[in-house]
Write a structure and sequence with these properties.
It is built from 14 helices and 9 strands. A hairpin with a 2-residue loop joins β8 and β9 (339-341). The strands form 3 sheets. A 5-stranded parallel β-sheet has the order 2-3-6-1-7. The chain is 43% helix and 10% strand. It has 351 residues and is α/β, with parallel strands linked by helices. The chain has helices at residues 3-6, 27-39, 56-65, 84-92, 109-112, 131-140, 166-171, 177-183, 200-215, 224-232, 238-252, 262-293, 304-308, 312-321; strands at 46-49, 74-78, 117-121, 142-144, 151-153, 157-162, 186-189, 334-336, 339-341. The chain has 3 domains: 27-190, P-loop containing nucleotide triphosphate hydrolases (Rossmann fold, 3-Layer(aba) Sandwich); 196-263, Helicase, Ruva Protein, domain 3 (Orthogonal Bundle), CATH 1.10.8.60; 280-341, no CATH class.
Length: 351
């Protein structure tokens, strides 16, 4: 980055060994990293909580890198990405012939991670039927492959992550309470990007540098207005969304200046919102046109409700919602549904 962008912000790097790839100087991230340093030397299970895109796998890898298991395997599995009928085999392995299609022996992720760390991402997606077996391996450090009666003993440190609220899932009986308590030994909650906005400038520099080198472009300027847009955006996709938008912006850059990738998102959002307002306005216009055509008679066979294919009470409710009321004029009698009605309308329900 050139001098003009360096005057806007300074890239912050963690001086802690093992935290490569984690960029941030906020107090919120500082608390998370302090927790990582506390629990990493132990063998305790860690549960990483946070919204999608907050960097849960980076934290899991940091836990492994600064633990005593750093020289042993780090194995990961996204539980949400594996079909239910294959997940048990992925976790615990199977013997040849254990089920249709099992043409060879398979080693599961727990065996692969023996003496190391197993990272189970999206643990909230583990099916209820499989949770007792997972609980057993966490408590006893032993399991059997599918199709085998032989017990395998392992020494695995589990790090789990989820964007789901496991407490709510337990209350809804969608997640076992005993498994939840076994996982929730040392929880770490990652803050969403909107709660650590001071980390946005160093993250921008980090991703611009990375993608500029990867794509082979020279990006030497990030405009103030682009940084302001980043700072005010809500970032529903968190750091992952920022990373993807920076990559897009680097690709689109043609003059060494990073374009604002949020401009298209704001425009698209406005376009998505527009039809809702237009629909309400169109609905209001149609009702008014129909009412004027029936001289504001609402009920009866010749009234506006019948013309619109609505019940009288439904039309009255829509009129209230859309703020439609009859223009002030002298009261007169109008024959509606075989009975006199004033210039307003009756709110009595249809018979």
């Amino acid at each position: 980055m050139g001098d003009d962008s360096e005057g806007v912000f300074e890239r912050k790097r963690s001086e802690r060994s093992g935290f490569e790839g984690i960029v941030g100087c906020s107090s919120a991230m500082g608390s998370v990293l302090a927790g990582v340093e506390q629990v990493a030397p132990t063998n305790s299970t860690v549960l990483i909580l946070g919204e999608t895109g907050t960097g849960k796998e980076l934290i899991a890898r940091a836990l492994h890198r600064i633990s005593e298991r750093r020289e042993r395997p780090f194995v990961r599995l996204n539980c949400a990405a594996i079909p239910f009928d294959l997940l048990e085999s992925e976790l615990f392995g199977h013997e040849k012939g254990a089920f249709t299609g099992a043409i060879a022996q398979k080693v599961g992720r727990f065996e692969m991670a023996d003496a190391g760390t197993l990272f189970l991402d999206e643990i909230g997606d583990i099916p209820l039927a499989l949770q007792p077996k997972l609980l057993r391996v966490l408590q006893e450090q032993e399991f059997e492959r599918l199709g085998s009666g032989r017990t395998h003993h392992i020494n695995v440190r589990l790090v789990a992550a989820t964007h789901r609220n496991l407490t709510d899932m337990v209350q809804r009986h969608e997640f076992r309470s005993d498994l939840y308590y076994r996982l929730n030994v040392f929880p770490l909650t990652l803050p969403p990007l909107r709660d650590r906005r001071e980390d946005i400038p160093p993250l921008v520099v980090h991703f611009v540098d990375y993608f500029a080198r990867k794509i082979g472009k020279d990006i030497h300027h990030v405009p103030e207005e682009t940084l302001s847009a980043f700072a005010s955006y809500s970032w529903p996709g968190n750091v992952r969304e920022l990373q993807n938008l920076i990559e897009r912006a680097v690709i689109l850059s043609s003059d060494g200046t990073l374009p604002n990738p949020l401009a298209s998102i704001v425009t698209h959002s406005r376009e998505l919102m527009a039809p809702r307002a237009t629909f309400s306005e169109s609905q209001r216009a149609v009702i008014l046109q129909t009412l004027n055509g029936t001289s504001w008679v609402i009920g009866g066979p010749d009234g506006a409700a019948a013309a619109l294919g609505l019940k009288r009470t439904t039309l009255i409710a829509k009129m209230k919602k859309l703020g439609i009321s009859r223009p002030a004029q002298p009261e007169r009698m109008a024959e509606t549904e075989g009975r006199p009605e004033t210039a307003g309308w009756s709110e009595a329900a249809d018979e």
